[in-house]
Amino acid sequence: MLCARNAAGPASALLLTATLTAALTARPIAAPAALPIAGPALALALARAAVRPTGPAADVGTPAPEAVRDALADCESGGDRQADTGNGYYGGLQILPATWQEAGGPQYAPRPDLADRAAQITVAEEIRRLQGWQAWSGCARRIGLLDRRP
Fold first, then answer.
1. Is 88 left (phi over 0), alpha (psi -120 to 50) or beta?
2. How wide is the angle at C-alpha 17 spanned by C-alphas 11 and 21, nearest 5°?
3. Which of 39, 95, 130, 134 reaches 20 to 30 Å from 7, CA-CA?
4. d(C-alpha 149, C-alpha 20), whole Å
5. Residue 141 belongs to what H/E stretch?
6. Distance between CA 132 and CA 56 in Å, rounded?
7. What interhelical angle do 39-51 and 66-77 show, nearest 10?
8. Most distant CA pair in the chain: distance in Å?
9. From CA 113, how far away is CA 61, in angstroms rounded?
10. Domain residue ranges in the chain
11. What are the start-end ranges of the H helices in 1-136?
12. Would you state the pLDDT for residue 6?
């Protein structure tokens, strides 16, 4: 699916697929400069491919790459880790206080917006372990972590 959206044609799709495989398995390939995407777009595409779930809570045992965490926070709160907009959700990943509590957040701070970035990431990984990407369903769909609804 990633190749079909981002590649210019069959040869580019094969090269992108080879590059993704190389990145995920740490095997080098011959010509990465020929990719139709590069820079931050490539980094996010590789990160998405590394964590794209195949079920409701797939890939929850491996921490999400930084590019994915940042894209999710950008979508949820504009990247503002101290977000408190009055909507009942807090922090960069817009976490409900009850969810913060359930995932062990109070050991870091009373609410997500009062915790530092590292604590928010630690708690978010626990939330993802418990709920999968569905915990952030709207933004997870928007950035390609969950399949879009038909």
1. left
2. 145
3. 134
4. 25
5. helix 137-142
6. 6
7. 100
8. 52
9. 25
10. 2-37, 66-142
11. 2-6, 10-25, 39-51, 66-77, 97-102, 117-131
12. 35
- Rounded to the nearest 10°, the torsion over CA 125, 58, 46, 23 is 100
What six digits make up the tokens of 88? 């009942």
Structural tokens at position 45: 């595409």
Specify the pTM: 0.62
pLDDT tens for 80-89 read 999 999 999 9
Q: Which CATH class is domain 66-142?
A: mainly alpha
**Alpha carbon distance 83, 131 (integer Å):** 22
Cβ atoms 128, 60 nearer than 8 A: yes
pLDDT, tens only, 55-80: 444 455 678 899 999 999 999 999 99
Residue 10 reports pLDDT greater than 90: no
